[in-house]
Every structure is written in structure tokens, then in C-alpha cells.
Write a structure and sequence with these properties.
Length: about 290
């Protein structure tokens, strides 16, 4: 398929459905920097807190979060930090530039005020989170690392997502889809001129995610954006592997949400039909093609 809503080619990825990927939530270099508070970090912290466009909030940029940003700067992932693009209950997204000038999005999760109960629905039953218990800091840090891992797996599967660049503590760096002063629009905000083509792409991306062992878990017209005629799937923090005990329920909900949206665009589609397509095994290669 070419032109509007064109698909991307999948890359060679890990074994689909790897539920046992390790998520390290122990103290890392950012925590050590914050505790050590060396002169360079103290200077960085003062400079950032004095920057008007940053509009520092204590609930977002505590010392450990500032240390995480400082580490990302030291490692060459961030060259310049800009103002906020969006704010939410769990995270704020800021514009930034990489060292080579590319536009970035920096997603900063709040540790103190994140919706822990909402997260638990997606974490319980996932062996990667065993032993974390009700420690909010560990849950949030694992959630951010999970989002980074999910983005990498989705991208390798040929799903168009923001390119994950780096993760440090509760800070996730991705490429910026669109521009900070002209953000990409959500599917819910645009007039879909060719809903048939858009639906074909969405269901194919859902199938590729499932084949890679992932279920988005919160997919709807609000978690897909349009940029330069292409559809991009966002917000994969809550995505679970197909082995999660609630994966089937989450997939059914995703299919119903997507089918309902395209039904409102005049298409005769159902959640059950979409789920059948998403979960159908790929056909074996024909003997004539071998």
C-alpha cells in the first residue's frame, strides 16, 4: 500500500510474546547523582530552575528527576530542553533537541501523583512486576521502562510509533511526531477522508502488535495520531504481553473501541470481526512459493 496511511515494513524482532524480559528498578546513576549532588549537577539544577520556560513544579521535577535529565544530557541524548507540549495526570511531555538538532519529546512521569490504581490493572499478573508490591516509586519506574520496551518491540514489528531513544529513571526520550507549535492531530480530531484505508492500516497494526506478543490495552481514536498523512500509534505504557491474564479482555475492548469509531465513519465493521482478523494465525507459505 502506498500513499496516505502507508504501512511500514517490520524488522527482525525478538521472539514474540517474551513475558520474562527483565525490568531493573533498582537505584541507577540518576539516583546516585541526586544523592551525591556534585557541583556540576547543582549548577545544572539551579540553571534549569531559573529558566522561565521550564516552569518547574515540585511534583514533576524533584532532584532525582532533574538528575535523570542531567544524565540524559551528559550521555548526549538531549542537547537543549524546551517548554511543555502537553500535561497530564501521570506525565508531562516537553519539547527538546538532540545533540544533532533533531526534535525530541521528553515524557516525564510524576512519581508522587501517578495513578497507581490505574497502573495496577495492567501490572498485576505480569511476572516482570513480581516483588514490586505497592512501592509506588518502583511501579512508576518499571512502567516507564515497560513503555520504552513496548515501543521498541512495536517498532520492530512494523508498527509506526514514536521512535524510543533513551530511558532514565522516570524520564522517557522519544522522537517528536509533528512539531511542538503544530502538534500532530489525534484520529478523533480529524476528518477521515478515506476511512476504509485508515481501517486497513489500524487493523494491520493491531495484528502486527499481537503477532509480536503485545496487546495495546487502551487503543482508540484518542491513542492514534495523524502526521504527514501517516497513522502513528501512541501511549504504549499500558500495553501487555499476550500472556497477561487480562490480555484477552484488553484485546476485546481495543477491538470494540476501534470498530465503534469506524462504524461512526460509515463502515460496517464489528469488534468480533476485527478480533478474528487480529488473532488469526498467518497462513503457511504455499508449496508453490518454496
Amino acid at each position: 500500500m502506498t500513499g496516505e496511511f502507508g504501512l511500514v515494513d517490520p524488522e527482525e524482532a525478538e521472539v514474540p510474546g517474551d513475558e520474562w524480559e527483565s525490568l531493573d528498578v533498582s537505584d541507577d546513576e540518576a539516583d546516585r547523582i541526586a544523592r551525591r549532588q556534585d557541583d556540576e549537577f547543582d549548577e545544572f539544577r539551579i540553571r534549569v530552575k531559573d529558566t522561565e520556560q521550564f516552569k518547574i513544579e515540585a511534583s514533576v521535577f524533584d532532584d532525582a528527576t532533574l538528575a535523570a535529565v542531567y544524565k540524559l544530557v551528559q550521555d548526549g541524548h538531549i542537547g537543549a530542553f524546551g517548554g511543555p507540549i502537553s500535561t497530564g495526570k501521570e506525565a508531562n511531555v516537553y519539547e527538546a533537541l538532540g545533540d544533532d538538532g533533531e526534535e525530541l519529546a521528553v515524557k516525564v512521569y510524576r512519581i508522587g501523583t501517578s495513578n497507581f490504581r490505574h497502573m495496577r490493572e495492567y501490572l498485576e499478573g505480569d511476572p516482570r512486576f513480581e516483588g514490586i508490591g505497592s512501592d509506588k516509586k518502583k511501579v512508576v519506574l518499571a512502567w516507564v521502562r515497560k513503555e520504552f520496551a513496548n515501543l521498541r518491540r512495536a517498532k520492530a514489528a512494523g508498527v509506526r510509533v514514536p521512535d524510543p531513544i533513551a530511558v532514565q529513571r522516570n524520564v522517557l526520550v522519544m522522537d517528536l511526531v509533528g512539531h511542538a507549535d503544530d502538534r500532530a492531530r489525534r484520529l478523533s480530531e480529524v476528518d477521515v477522508e478515506n476511512p476504509e484505508t485508515a481501517y486497513e492500516v489500524v487493523r494491520e497494526y493491531m495484528r502486527r502488535l499481537y503477532s509480536a506478543g503485545l496487546v495495546h490495552g487502551d487503543l482508540s481514536e484518542y491513542n492514534m495520531i495523524i502526521h504527514e498523512g501517516e497513522l502513528v500509534v501512541i501511549d504504549l505504557g499500558q500495553a501487555v504481553t499476550v500472556h497477561h491474564p487480562n490480555a484477552r479482555e484488553f484485546l476485546e475492548r481495543d477491538c470494540e473501541n476501534v470498530a465503534a469509531f469506524f462504524s461512526r465513519q460509515g463502515m460496517a465493521v464489528t469488534g468480533a470481526e476485527l478480533q478474528e482478523y487480529v488473532t488469526a494465525p498467518e497462513p503457511e507459505p504455499s508449496a508453490d512459493l518454496e
